[in-house]
Amino acid sequence: MIELAVLDIAGTTVEEHGAVYVALEEAVRAAGGTPSAADIGRWMGSGKREAITALLDGPGGGLPSDERVDAAFADFRARLSAAYAARPPAPLPGVPEAIAELRAAGVKVALTTGFDREVTTSLLSAIGWEHGVLDAVVCVDDVPAGRPAPYMIFRAMEATGVSDVGRVLTAGDTVRDLQAGTNAGARIVAGVLTGSQDAATLGAVRHTHLLPGVASIPGLLSLR
Asked: Which domains, from first to last, does the chain contain?
């Protein structure tokens, strides 16, 4: 029996049209970095400050490294906010129904994300998920390190009172989501094909299932 489903946000439960990675690349370039598409791909699913730090290869710009990262991160958040205002995010098809079905069956649902708390709160408010929809929301700034470390999953377990990783399902649309689930020892580590990484990319790392999307999870757990 699965007691907890830990789901990623962008590309997994929420359609945000890839805005996060466009904003990330633009902010890094504006700060003097030169990331390739492959560079951006390697940091999908990670904490965004961590990604910016890695993608900026040197102090540059006459600013100390910490100041440069801080400035690029602030720029990233501003670009992402503008992108969301221009093209609002929305739940992916079937996801609200799947979450409701899981919770009705006694499975707690937590979201985890590489966004910080401020960005996450704004995003969930925009789609009407700030109250009564979820059992927990864990952000990258709640833990010592983001994915592929398992800490956000462990924090979700702590927040929902689930103590056995053998009763945890994780799902996400990036390699780092799968790595975090595997590192946590979750019983089910599912990749979903609603994000920007395809089945070949996700299938190259350890997982238990590849699914069309989160909407398939209740069927996987024989809830329907």
From this structure: 4-16+90-220 (3.40.50.1000), 19-86 (1.10.150)
